[in-house]
Amino acid sequence: MNTDIPRILENIRISYEYEMGEYIEPDSRRRHKVELRNALVNAAKPYGTCQQLAAMIGKINHTTTIHCIKEHETYHNFSPQYRRNYATALEVVEKFARRHQLLPRLNSQRGGSTTYEEEIVTLNMSIAALQSRRDRLIERLDNTRRIATFDNSSTI
User: Fold this and answer.
1) CB count, 10 Å around CB of 151?
2) In sequence order, what are the residues at sequence separation of 6 or more whose Cβ sits closer than 8 angstroms to the Cβ of residue 101?
3) Which of 12, 28, 69, 101 is least surrounded by CB atoms within 10 angstroms?
4) pTM attached to this predicted model
5) pLDDT digits (tens, 9 = 90+) for 60-81
6) What is the DSSP letter of 110?
7) Are 40 and 16 within 8 A, CB to CB?
C-alpha cells in the first residue's frame, strides 16, 4: 500500500490545530506555541521521518524534530499544559493511524512486532510515572489539609 505520509501528517496537524483551537505558528518562540509543536511532533513520531515531522510543523530542518524529541521528557514531567497538548495530539494521531491503517516505524521501516512491544513498554513507563506523580500530589494535599486542620483547631 502506497501511503502519502506527508499529506497524512499535514491533515493530522490541521486536525490537531482545530482540536486545540489555535494555530501552531512555526516561527513563534512563545512557550505555549513551542509546547504545541513539540507535543504534536512527539505524538506523530512513530509515523514519519524527522524531515517529514519538521515539514508537518512548518520547519525546514530535520534537527528541529530531534530537538523536540529530546525535550519531550522535560516538558512531560514539568508542564501540565504540555501533558494536555500531548494527550490531545496522541488522540488525533491515533485516529488518523487507525483510519489509514498506519503502522509505526522501526529503524526507518514500517511495522514490526518489536515496535509494538517497545510502545507498550513506553506507555507502561509513562503510566507508572504519572501514577507516582499523582500519589505524591495526593500525599502533599493530605499533608496540607492536615496542617491546616491542626492550625485551625489550636486557635479555637
Assistant:
1) 9
2) 1
3) 101
4) 0.69
5) 999 999 999 999 999 999 999 9
6) E
7) yes
